[in-house]
Design a protein that fits this description.
The complex is a heterotrimer.
Chain A (H helix, E strand, L loop, with lengths): L15 E12 L2 E12 L3 E6 L5 H8 L7 E6 L2 E3 L4 H6 L2 E4 L11 H6 L8 H19 L14 H14 L4 E5 L7 H16 L3 E5 L3 H7 L2 E6 L2 E7 L5 H9 L17 E11 L5 E11 L3 E5 L6 H9 L6 E6 L2 E3 L7 H6 L2 E4 L3 H5 L6 H4 L18 H14 L16 H14 L4 E5 L7 H16 L3 E6 L2 H7 L2 E6 L2 E7 L5 H9 L15
Parallel strand pairs in A: 3-8, 3-9, 6-7, 7-8, 13-18, 13-19, 16-17, 17-18
Antiparallel strand pairs in A: 1-2, 1-4, 4-5, 9-10, 11-12, 11-14, 14-15, 19-20
Helix pairs in contact in A: 13-14, 14-15
Chain B lengths: L8 H26 L4 H14 L1 H26 L7 H19 L5 H30 L3 H23 L22 H7 L12 H18 L1 H11 L1 H6 L4 H17 L1 H9 L11 H11 L4 H24 L5 H17 L5 H18 L1
Helix pairs in contact in B: 1-2, 1-15, 2-3, 2-14, 3-8, 3-11, 3-13, 3-14, 4-5, 4-6, 4-11, 4-12, 4-13, 5-6, 5-11, 5-12, 8-9, 8-14, 9-11, 13-14, 14-15
Chain C lengths: L1 H15 L3 H4 L4 E4 L9 H16 L4 E4 L3 H13 L5 E4 L4 H10 L5 E4 L8 E6 L1 H15 L4 E8 L2 H17 L4 E8 L8 H13 L4 E5 L4 H11 L2 E6 L10 E7 L1 H14 L5 E5 L6 E3 L11 H16 L7 H4 L7
Parallel strand pairs in C: 1-2, 1-3, 3-4, 4-5, 5-11, 6-7, 6-8, 8-9, 9-10
Antiparallel strand pairs in C: 10-12
Helix pairs in contact in C: 3-10, 4-5, 6-7, 6-11, 8-9
The chains are: A alpha/beta, B mainly alpha, C alpha/beta.
């Protein structure tokens, strides 16, 4: 079957590195891909955007050989191919950098790259050969990594570079990057984009899967938008805008700014004083952190993930023991001598939306109603003298689901069967239902569709307006800027900035995030507490 | 390459185990044929031996009782994410508890008054034996698989020491305690039925079968209907989420291990207070290990465990019958046959899943195309 | 299988008219946990059964138990099917024999190694302490270091009985002799752990022992090997094991369980089977020390005469060998 490229019929078909035509794939009753066409021009950066469940991952999995399409054809470099597994994909010159890196932590960079492509019985021999080839590749693309460094010692940005090297080492001419910027600082993002541009100039085609529209605008040549399993549009990036893309993704107009009133801060509800916390290896993950969150304000914690935010939430919620310094929640003091368990802290009126719901906030194998009482499982309203009060639990879950528009409204459905947005809504509903005086929210909209983001933001603002103190930790600067009233910037376990959201922008926050001790003078400048 | 359909529940719970059992019997049949016996005849003997007459049924259910207890023990620990290999030792030590209380009070109390005390003693001793590995896992990071295996050996050594040096009936040749007074032992099933005027053959099967069924009910309620079960399952699925929810996982690990151990300890109700009427050497004879296969096959659900226990009980009794009827089928061959069933139903439980899913996909696809 | 059936058929035709007694001879044997090929106790019974089968052409049924409850089950099944006599192997089957013998007064059961007082049970036990006394004497006489040793299998009273008799014999020769003792283990696996047996023996040699007596089933093989490798002497047990390491096997304490099994069947065939208690000691030939071509070079005339004299004295009751199991204690070792 011959496919005609959609957007530019005059172009010679050979100049397409990938052509997908009429791809269909269904899982049971769910149609993940319906008649999807995609044409990637050789040597261009092609972004694919879409909400969760729009079918991006399925499409890429088909391209990388994890699934086989029910029908449709794949051309690589103009030739019809059948991609049965990832080995075949690699042979065809397709490389993939996954969102979660597939690296062996305690191997060196060189070992990781060669792993699976040794090509010889003698490891020493293949390593030596690989080193030579890699030197050429890194010179050519400007990808500088110490080949003998142990992967676990490298920062995230460099680990990603190792993944890219891995693909290039296998002679990838087409590189698929799945949400590559989620874990990077703005500066690292810039470096990544520079690398992608070099790759492009050397004739490598890049497929970028992302949900960050501003990055799409910044780097890509073309954008394909997917919605509900179909490809709704492919446009030249130069001819579109964020708003237009968002509308294409969701199918309706979307508010990208949070609509909220000026904050009206009241008394301090949460005070943190000189909090320091060291991990098992005695590395300080939190270093002398102090701040205040007042009633009726939303304070954001900005920073690249892994700079102490997780530990901060852990300490505030009682999941970690306080070692040094103190936390004061509405007059109740928690310090090394007076520890409190997560349960006790919850009883003080603290709600906690975990930053990683899969790790902390829910249990995938539990039914929705069981997830809906997490943290409240010992409350008398859910328990009889011995047995749990199942009807009360079901009722409670139904109530949460209807107020937070969680779909489907089925308290007995396994939590893992809900979409990411609905899972998050259920977790937030659970924490907000008790109208906490202090709400800790980690990554409020991670993996959540644009439509649901809007709703979640509105709920958080509504809670603020009822007089609660809200602390939001997010790696999405855009979210921090639009949702929060005041922003704390964290870097290397320290608070390096405290500014009003209305008086800053992403660029200056990014600068603070990448500063370390040099950023000290910037701290405590614009705080209002 | 891999077109798969999601299996309907009936296929997952019913069809796959059935296919696995059939495969196991098929390969066991090959082994039987290899040594020159008729597999068909062997299967007949096995099934008739296990279910064909009341004595066989009695023995089958007697083994079943043990496996229910140990299967439940493994399942409860498994729900908490723990692999309790120590059912053998916990049951053995449970026997010490049951034995001590029975020997202390057997001339004072009739069996029905002694039974609750014996259940408490057996569970307490079993729980205490499981407490140590549980504690070491939770607070010292020693892996529970390793420690429970070690505790099987320690239990064995301890019991041999006690039976040889302390508890032995003076002048007795065997390292075992004196017999428990007849009026204080658990009535055998034939005595129980005789009470209602029904006559059945005497077997070691005793009232502890009912205790086992009650234990199943207890585990079902505990795991799925109480907040403790909620906490146990949560640490099993996701320990970090448990911390988030204000559950102390270390404490729950210890508690889950103790519940597991106490269930294993109840094996002694069947063996010590019921069948053997004394504490003897190695009276558990492998039931603790069989419990692992039982729990695996029963998907850690009490109902599944009852069915799996029945299958293994039948295999043990039917296997003995095989060895009895065929001089060429030795007890070692019976172990091979049992091993094949464990292999197919436990270790290879999901082997047939892929092909079956493809088959279902094929069927649903062709039926769709017809439409 | 087929072969055996044919043979039995042919023979039963030939034997049918020979003896009326033989008609209800329908022997069966219940082996215990170790299994019939344990190279020790059960196997010895098996040999006795096989010997009878060879001689008389009468086949027998058998069962090997794998757990405690099967003992009673197996004995009862044989009783139900009219097996006669039923040979029950090992002290552990005593309780089961006691029960089944009561239920089936017509069944005739021979229990080896334990006593059950029932009108239809023949109990055969052995005075292992007497035989062990004799090999203890030989050990003490052979020893140049004044230290001898003992490796037991599983730590149970029966093995202590061997140990105690051995120590008494050694002390009878040399009052100040040092007797090193080790048990292989506390679980049934101790009966079949030759590697550990060898380790224990070597450590005993390191502590000065130059003669070791192993009463440890299959574990003993390792002990004998270690003795041969270190140039020390070893003493076998149960059957005559002198042939295992000729030159370093000083002797063996033979315990004729095969004879007990064979005799029971033979007596049944002859119509002379009697219930009751039989203690097979030195006097009855149930236990003895072994002298054959493999060890005659190691036993001096002096040693032989001393041992034979002691044997006579024990039979005559002039030497009293203490039986550990009579009171679960061993004064010689306290």
């Amino acid at each position: 079957m011959v496919t005609q490229p959609i957007q530019d019929p005059n172009r010679d078909p050979v100049s397409y590195s990938i052509q997908l035509a009429k791809i269909n794939k269904h899982f049971g009753a769910v149609k993940a891909n319906v008649d999807v066409d995609l044409n990637v021009v050789k040597g261009e950066i092609h972004a694919i955007v879409g909400e969760n469940g729009a079918g991006k991952s399925t499409l890429m999995s088909i391209l990388y050989g994890f699934y086989e399409a029910d029908s449709g054809s794949i051309h690589v470099d103009g030739k019809v191919v059948s991609i049965t597994d990832s080995k075949r994909a690699i042979e065809l010159g397709i490389g993939m950098v996954h969102q979660h890196f597939m690296l062996v932590d305690n191997f060196t960079v060189l070992e990781n790259i060669v792993l699976g492509a040794e090509g010889s019985w003698s490891l020493t021999h293949s390593l030596a050969k690989a080193r030579k080839k890699l030197q050429e590749i890194s010179d050519r693309y400007g990808l500088n990594v110490d080949l003998d460094a142990v992967v676990s010692h490298l920062p995230v940005g460099l680990q990603q570079r190792v993944e890219i090297l891995k693909a290039l080492y296998r002679d990838a001419k087409i590189l698929i990057l799945d949400e590559p910027t989620g874990v990077l600082t703005p500066q690292e993002v810039d470096q990544l984009f520079a690398i992608l541009k070099t790759l492009k100039s050397q004739g490598v085609s890049v497929l970028l899967i992302t949900h960050k529209l501003q990055e799409v605008i910044a780097i890509s040549d073309q954008v394909s938008v997917m919605r509900a399993g179909t490809m709704v549009a492919t446009v030249n990036t130069a001819e579109t805008s964020r708003e237009a893309l968002a509308e294409l993704m969701v199918g309706r107009k979307v508010l990208l700014r949070v609509d909220k009133q000026e904050a009206n801060p009241g008394a301090a509800l949460l005070k943190v004083d000189s909090l320091t916390w060291r991990d098992d290896t005695n590395v300080p993950r939190l270093d002398d952190v102090s701040f205040t969150v007042n009633a009726g304000e939303i304070v954001g914690v900005a920073g690249v993930s892994g700079n102490g935010q997780t530990e901060l939430l852990g300490l505030l919620s009682g999941m970690l023991d306080v070692q040094q310094g103190q936390i004061n929640i509405e007059g109740v003091c928690i310090d090394a001598q007076h520890q409190m368990t997560p349960k006790q802290i919850r009883h003080l009126g603290v709600g906690h939306v975990a930053e990683d719901r899969h790790r902390d906030g829910m249990v995938g194998a539990f039914s929705a109603e069981e997830t809906a009482i997490m943290g409240f499982q010992d409350e008398p309203e859910f328990n009889g003298s011995i047995l749990q009060n199942r009807s009360a639990i079901t009722e409670h879950c139904q109530e949460l689901m209807s107020t937070f528009d969680v779909r489907p409204v089925d308290p007995n459905l396994k939590s893992a069967s809900f979409s990411g947005g609905n899972q998050q809504k259920l977790c937030i509903a659970r924490e907000m239902n008790a109208t906490p005086k202090v709400l800790l929210v980690g990554q409020p909209t991670r993996g959540v569709d644009i439509g649901a983001i809007e709703f979640i933001h509105q709920q958080i603002v509504a809670l603020r307006d009822q007089g609660s103190a809200v602390l939001v930790v997010s790696v999405e600067l855009e979210e921090i800027l639009s949702l929060c009233d005041r922003v704390l910037v964290m870097s290397e376990g320290r608070i390096v900035g405290n500014v009003l959201a209305s008086e800053t922008d992403a660029r200056s926050l990014g600068l603070m995030m990448s500063s370390s001790r040099s950023g000290d003078q910037m701290a405590q400048q614009g705080g209002q507490s | 390459m891999s077109r798969r359909a999601k299996l309907p529940a009936w296929a997952d719970i019913g069809l796959i185990p059935l296919i696995n059992v059939l495969l196991a019997f098929l390969s066991a049949g090959v082994v039987v044929a290899l040594i020159g016996e008729s597999p068909l005849e062997a299967v007949q003997v096995l099934i008739r031996g296990a279910f064909g007459y009341d004595e066989g049924v009695g023995y089958t259910l007697y083994y079943t009782t043990n496996f229910i207890f140990t299967g439940l023990a493994v399942a409860v620990a498994f729900h908490a994410g723990l692999f309790n290999i120590g059912g053998e030792g916990q049951a053995y030590i449970g026997g010490l508890g049951v034995g001590l209380i029975c020997l202390a009070l057997d001339h004072l109390l009739p069996w029905w008054a002694l039974l609750p005390l014996a259940i408490i003693a057996g569970s307490l001793f079993g729980a205490a034996w499981a407490f140590i590995p549980g504690y070491l896992q939770a607070y010292r990071g020693s892996h529970v698989v390793i420690t429970t295996i070690m505790f099987n050996f320690i239990a064995s050594a301890l019991m041999v020491y006690l039976l040889v040096n302390v508890l032995i009936q003076p002048g007795s040749m065997s390292p075992e305690t004196r017999a428990i007074a007849p009026e204080s032992t658990l009535p055998l099933m034939h005595e129980f039925f005789a009470f209602f005027g029904i006559k059945i053959t005497q077997t070691p099967l005793n009232l502890s079968l009912f205790v086992a069924l009650l234990a199943c009910l207890f585990v079902w309620v505990l795991i799925w209907k109480t907040r403790w079960g909620y906490a146990i399952r949560m640490i099993g699925f996701n320990e970090s989420a448990a911390v988030y929810s204000g559950i102390n996982p270390k404490r729950m690990v210890v508690i889950a291990m103790m519940i597991s151990g106490s269930l294993a300890g109840l094996v002694a109700i069947n063996e010590v207070m019921g069948a053997q009427e004394r504490v003897g050497l190695d009276f558990v004879s492998g039931a603790g290990f069989t419990g692992i296969a039982v729990a695996l096959m029963g998907r850690n659900h009490p109902l599944g465990i009852i069915i799996a226990s029945l299958l293994f009980g039948a295999l043990f009794q039917g296997g003995a019958e095989l060895a009895f009827e065929f001089s060429t089928i030795t007890r070692d061959l019976v172990v091979v046959i049992q091993g094949l069933v464990i292999l197919f139903c436990g270790a290879l439980a999901y082997m047939m899943r892929g092909p079956l899913e493809r088959l279902f996909a094929l069927v649903s696809r062709s039926s769709q195309e017809e439409r | 299988m087929k072969r055996v059936v044919l043979k039995t058929l042919a023979l039963s035709v030939a034997v049918a008219s020979a003896s009326a007694q033989a008609a209800d001879l329908n022997p069966a044997v219940v082996f215990d946990m170790g299994g019939k090929f344990d190279k020790s106790f059960n196997q010895s019974v098996y040999n006795g059964m096989e010997r009878f089968k060879e001689e008389s052409g009468v086949n027998y049924r058998e069962f090997e138990v794998t757990n405690a409850s099967q003992r009673e089950q197996a004995i009862r099944r044989f009783a139900q099917r009219g097996a006669n006599p039923i040979i029950s192997v090992g002290f552990a089957q005593a309780a089961a024999v006691d029960k089944v013998a009561g239920e089936f007064p017509d069944a005739r059961i021979t229990l080896i190694d334990m006593v059950v007082d029932k009108p239809n049970v023949q109990s055969v036990v052995f005075n292992e302490h007497e035989g062990s006394f004799l090999v203890g004497m030989l050990a003490a006489m052979k020893s140049e270091t004044g230290t001898v040793s003992f490796v037991g299998g599983m730590d149970i009273p029966l093995i202590r009985k061997f140990e105690c008799g051995y120590a008494q014999g050694a002390q009878y020769v040399n009052k100040d002799i040092n007797v090193i003792r080790n048990m292989t283990g506390t679980t049934p696996s101790a009966w079949n752990d030759p590697a550990k047996g060898a380790e224990l023996a070597v450590s005993q040699f390191d502590r000065g022992s130059d003669v070791v007596y192993a009463a440890a089933g299959g574990t003993g093989v390792g002990v004998y090997q270690a003795a041969a490798d270190s140039g020390k002497y070893a003493i076998g047990v149960d059957s005559n094991q002198n042939y295992l390491q000729p030159g370093t096997m000083l002797t063996s304490m033979v315990k004729r369980v095969d004879v007990a099994a064979y005799n029971s069947l033979k007596a049944m065939q002859d119509g002379t089977w009697q219930a009751g208690f039989q203690a097979l000691g030195l006097a009855q030939g149930g236990v003895d020390w072994a002298l054959d071509e493999h060890n005659e070079a190691l036993i001096t005339a002096e040693m032989k005469s001393a041992v034979e004299a002691a044997k006579k004295a024990i039979i005559a009751g002039e030497i009293k060998v203490h039986d550990y199991m009579s009171d679960n204690s061993c004064p010689a070792l306290d």
